[in-house]
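Fold this sequence, please.
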Amino acid sequence: MSANWGIKMGTVSTSGAGRDLGAGGGPCALDTSPATLPVTIPVPPPRTTTTTAPAGHRLPLHCQDMARWVHIIQRVWSCGRQLRRWLADQLAPWQLSDSQFLLLFSCGQSYGEGVAQQDLSAALDISPARISGLVEELAARELVCLSRPAQDRRRQLVQLTTRGARLLETILGTLSPLASRLEPDEVAGRRDAALDWLGGCYRAAG
């Protein structure tokens, strides 16, 4: 036997005599001379793999404007996450998370009037359920309280307590020397313009 892709591995030698009965019942001598039988083991052909480096791809012109915006979004998102981690590290002495502090800060910006929870959710980009949990955590520490304005008793506003306002002032005062590290003099003048630009982008996307 043979195969087109076989590899001949060797031979097997057989010898000896045998007898058989023919059709007429008489003895029939077999060839007892040594015989050599070829042995062929089929082996699949070797696999060949080729590695081709991917060809460079340049976006067509009509895609490049949006690609630039995706790059901007990616950078802003990455910078925001890094700054939030930095802020969380600075807040460790007061046992506040960055989200708790930003909620206190947002309430402090209302000048005592209080902020509705749905407005806090939109400002901090946190779900209403999570805002509710943060308010409960801060209220348990007597840093915020809930109130209802006289003109609309159905609304519930989150306000800083005296203790919360004092803590916010302490944190901001303690961290103020670090502001120069975040905003060198050469870029400080462009801060407001950059914030206005980002705000415009946010409004346009909404």
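The chain is about 50% helix and 15% strand. Residues 121 and 128 are 6 Å apart (CA to CA).
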